[in-house]
Design a protein that fits this description.
Pectate Lyase C-like, mainly beta, twelve-stranded mixed beta sheet, single chain
Length: 313
């Protein structure tokens, strides 16, 4: 479809259902604007389409190329694809308000949403529940931008970034909640080569079977403000945050009851970290661990310190 389209469901969410019948993508759009409201998009199964120089099954419910999507009060459930289990965006924008994704699956990236090729995603309120992919169980943001405000991420799964994966992208997360997500690296959020902000956000009871029970960051510049990391677990290192070759600035943030083999609160791997006015409480076995010099420290309440390869002070 290369024309503008607006569809408004009758009644409430769930009363008007658009289904792919387990056979096809529900909606494919290019070079147009699509507005969807009060709808449920379900049982979409992506078919093979050209993506750049290859063919992929992309976008179980929605496949958008050079398009503008505006979704309001829409549920996307039980959709499947190789990439972008529910929504695939290439060189496109998506504005999602009170949108809920649940039980969507991608074989590779973006269980709920894959945004790539300079796309942008703005999500306000809504939720991302029980979605699964290899990378970005909820959202995968690749060479694109995402702004997430008041979004709930629960019980998503991935190897990299169960809630959100950001790769070579700009990611802003504000007033959001990540709980009971599970991944190998970054059970809540994994960031690679990214620029990111995490503000007024709770990450609790997330579980990584390798590193970064809450956040995993690699070659990333990250600002964390007024956040709460509570009872996240990494079976490797970095129960709350794992920082590798990154710059991490933390202010007015609470780390409590996080666990890992090392760095129960924060584990640093050749990264620069600035912490201001933050509290570390009952993280096991320690609050911070700096791999560069083997320094393991516990802090306390309302602490300010900096860390680099030479140590923390």
């Amino acid at each position: 479809m290369k024309h503008d389209l607006a569809v408004r469901g009758l009644g409430g969410i769930g009363d008007t259902v658009l289904s792919g019948g387990d056979r096809s993508t529900v909606l494919t759009v290019s070079d147009g604007r699509v507005e969807l409201e009060l709808l449920t998009l379900t049982d979409g199964r992506a078919t093979s389409v050209a993506v750049g120089n290859e063919r992929r099954e992309a976008g179980g419910a929605v496949h958008a190329t050079s398009a503008e999507l505006v979704l309001t009060d829409v549920d996307l459930e039980d959709n499947r694809a190789e990439t972008g289990g529910a929504v695939y965006l290439a060189d496109s924008s998506a504005t999602l308000t009170d949108v809920v994704f649940f039980d969507n699956i991608a074989s590779f990236e973006g269980g709920a949403v894959l945004a790539e090729q300079g796309s942008s995603v703005t999500m306000v309120r809504g939720g991302v529940y029980r979605n699964d992919a290899n990378s970005g169980g909820g959202l995968a943001i690749l060479d694109s931008a995402a702004s997430l405000d008041e979004v709930m991420f629960l019980e998503n799964g991935a190897t990299y970034g169960a809630g959100v994966l950001g790769d070579d992208s700009s990611v802003s997360v504000q007033r959001s909640h990540f709980g009971h997500n599970a991944a190998g690296y970054g059970a809540a959020v994994a960031l690679y080569g990214a620029s990111a902000l995490v503000d007024d956000t709770v990450m609790e009871h997330n579980d990584s079977w390798y590193d970064g029970g809450g956040l995993f960051v690699y070659e990333t510049e990250l600002d964390v403000r007024a956040a709460n990391f509570h009872e996240n677990v990494a079976e490797g290192v970095g129960g709350g945050v794992h920082g590798c070759y990154s710059v991490v600035r933390v202010a007015n943030t609470w780390f409590s009851g996080n666990e890992a083999v090392e760095g129960g609160g924060v584990y640093l791997r050749y990264s620069d970290v600035e912490v201001e006015g933050s509290t570390f409480d009952e993280n096991l076995p320690d609050d911070t661990c700096n791999e560069a010099n083997g320094q393991s420290l516990s802090w306390g309440e309302d602490v300010t310190f900096t860390c680099d390869d030479n140590g923390c002070a």
